[in-house]
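Help needed: design a sequence for this.
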């Protein structure tokens, strides 16, 4: 524990030195607002590192990205101290208090039967806290507006399900039927040459339904789509290599040629 505190203090001291009058011009220039893009970027880089750690066979990159993300928190806390908004020490204090408050089944002896009930309890406590502070008490309150749409769909579905707005947990038939319904509506718009706005709406409904299936199957849709993206990129790069190898070029390669290369990539395990 002492080593942990010492490492935290060392990082804090370094940041304060960088922000000092004789410190780094770039670090001194930063504000709450200017750090927002860096916070988002570092969060995504950590996510990428976690998703790739198994294939890379090392956690070194994950460790590095954890440090980069922690730096952003220290950076915000240091600026807050300078402005008198809050102290750096308040950051771990406030999250510690929140964790204890929202885990009564651990710290207050309140029994829960499973993870779903624990999650429901967390959300219920959160709503009561919002009510006491006269804030929005909707189940969907607190979902950041700027979340990527796939992640946001997952979170609002998760929150709605936490209070029972969901189909039977072990029966995926209704959600599969919903996906088919939304798919048919997309096809209907295409066949009728409907408006682009309506087509966008129906495709959005279809994507939302697919995200819901992923959630109900305990699949993170963002990770699943990221995996599909990486798979497509691997196979497409294989196609590029084959097109270059046979010297026909893209313009002289038929769709049948390209599909043959794709199937080769698929059979090779790419």
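Sure. Designed sequence:
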């Amino acid at each position: 524990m002492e080593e942990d505190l010492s490492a935290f203090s060392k990082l804090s001291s370094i940041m304060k030195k960088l922000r000092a009058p004789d410190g780094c011009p770039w670090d001194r220039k930063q504000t709450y607002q200017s750090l927002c893009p860096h916070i988002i970027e570092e969060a995504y880089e950590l996510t990428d590192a976690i998703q790739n750690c198994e294939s890379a066979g090392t956690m070194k990159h994950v460790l590095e990205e954890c440090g980069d993300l922690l730096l952003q928190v220290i950076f915000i806390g240091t600026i807050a101290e300078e402005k008198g908004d809050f102290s750096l020490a308040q950051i771990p204090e406030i999250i510690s208090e929140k964790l204890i408050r929202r885990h009564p089944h651990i710290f207050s002896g309140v029994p829960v039967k499973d993870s779903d009930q624990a999650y429901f309890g967390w959300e219920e406590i959160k709503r009561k806290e919002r009510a006491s502070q006269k804030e929005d008490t909707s189940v969907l309150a607190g979902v950041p507006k700027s979340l990527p749409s796939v992640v946001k769909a997952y979170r609002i579905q998760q929150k709605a399900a936490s209070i029972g707005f969901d189909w039977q947990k072990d029966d995926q038939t209704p959600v599969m039927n919903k996906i088919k319904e939304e798919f048919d509506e997309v096809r209907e718009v295409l066949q009728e040459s409907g408006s682009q706005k309506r087509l966008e709406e129906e495709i959005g409904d279809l994507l939302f339904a697919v995200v819901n299936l992923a959630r109900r199957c305990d699949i993170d849709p963002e990770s699943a789509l990221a995996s599909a993206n990486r798979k497509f990129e691997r196979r497409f790069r294989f196609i590029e290599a084959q097109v270059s190898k046979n010297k026909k070029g893209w313009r002289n390669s038929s769709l049948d040629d390209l599909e043959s290369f794709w199937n080769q990539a698929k059979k090779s395990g790419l």
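The chain has a mean pLDDT of 91.
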